[in-house]
Diamine N-acetyltransferase
Amino acid sequence: MLTLRGDLVRLRALEPEDLDFLFKAENTEQLWGLSQTQTPFSKHILKHYLENAHLDIYEVKQLRLVIETLTKETIGFIDVFDFDPKNKRAGIGILILEPYHRGKGYGKQALNLLCNYCFKHLQLHQVYANIEEENNASIKLFTQQGFVLSGVKKDWNFTNGTFTNELLYQYVNNVH
């Protein structure tokens, strides 16, 4: 079985044709808190980002993949960020854009595929996720995949006039 393909979704590299979907995702104001964004992105900036998306993870320390159904419908993104090859760790973030695609196992499979990729191909020892304390769906997703709560960052994010806690979840791969 291919590392980035399951029976529900496949993960693939960004393509120029993803510009409109990326524009929608990055400019949905309700999602800005997830990426600490405070301003919209222009199509020009996002086009430039797509033109450079091919750069090696060892150079740019991040990787964004498209989550696509097997019928080739783009439904979200999954990211590796803060890639640290020396310490063999990286952060993971996931977005299933439309609520009607959530709860169908797509995110679970995408997260599983990406974790396997990180451990097998990037030789990581651990991956982690930063999750807002109120984001029960993400907490459930990551804990079902074996991530463990390892810390609470008190009053970490300031959103809508309120400080919120951010939780740190880790998955340590003990298979060597």
Remarks:
- The longest helix spans residues 106-120.
- The mean pLDDT is 88.
- The CA atoms of residues 33 and 159 lie 7 Å apart.
